[in-house]
Amino acid sequence: MKVKILATSLLTLTILSCNQGEKTERQKEVSAEKKTEQTQVVNHVMTKEQQAALTPDAVVQDFIEGNKRFHSGVKTVRDHSEQIRKAVPGQFPKAVVLSCLDSRVPVEDVFDQGLGDIFVGRVAGNFVNEDLLGSMEFACKVAGAKLILVMGHQHCGAVKGAIDDVKLGNITAMLAKIKPAVQMSQDFAGEKTSKNDEFVEHVSENNVKYAMQQIREKSPILKEMENKGEIKIVGAFYRLTDGTLEFVK
Q: For residues 148 and 95, is the Cβ–Cβ distance under 8 A?
């Protein structure tokens, strides 16, 4: 009787062990499938034909989807060695992004873009000057980019400096280019200091709007392209706290 009970117990344990093993293997398979779904391997670069087929709205949508991947942790794996080789003959980016100098704002990563996908112009406070306007004209009129995106961000040190009227070397002249946004924000109902995060955000958004206005006013080339629907000029605000993006109207 004892032998029979022991044999039965061993058989039960064997069956349970097999079932557990099958579950574990299946769990691994499901996990691998999910990982495969989330990991996209990219080794191509934008071609002239692909760029020409894009519309400004399509690029905006591509940026929205790319930012969702970025802040949700779904990364795009790229073969940089292959992309470098393919990019040698020429570049055909889909957009130009004007961003702040801030090291916490990795532009290509924020939109999940790769080598040859976008032009990036950076300056503390993401303001517009003659050099950046010329760069944008090259990007759009000469190189064929379909979108200009001006991106401000949360907790911008340059905006805080402009609010505080900081005076220091060449920083003084630089911050003067952000001061118009501070003036635009005097209707803010609250403490108007750099210690108030809500006010800093308000000024940052107005700074994006002012930069967009300057692009249209100071570049007849880009204004004409926008009027013809060849490009779009849009603004966005990036949140350091969670990696999300909001469009500024």
A: yes
pLDDT for 90-149, tens place per residue?
689 999 999 999 999 999 999 999 888 999 999 999 999 999 999 999 999 999 999 999
CA separation, residue 83 to residues 46, 51, 77, 132 (Å): 10, 16, 12, 27
| Cα 147 to Cα 210: distance, rounded to the nearest angstrom | 17
DSSP string for residues in 118-165: EEEEE-TT----HHHHHHHHIIIIIT---EEEEEEETT-HHHHHHHTT
Q: At 116, which amino acid appears?
A: G
The answer to pTM > 0.85 is: no
Strands in the chain per DSSP E: 40-42, 76-78, 95-99, 118-122, 147-153, 232-238, 245-248
* Distance from C-alpha of 175 to C-alpha of 163, rounded to nearest angstrom: 9
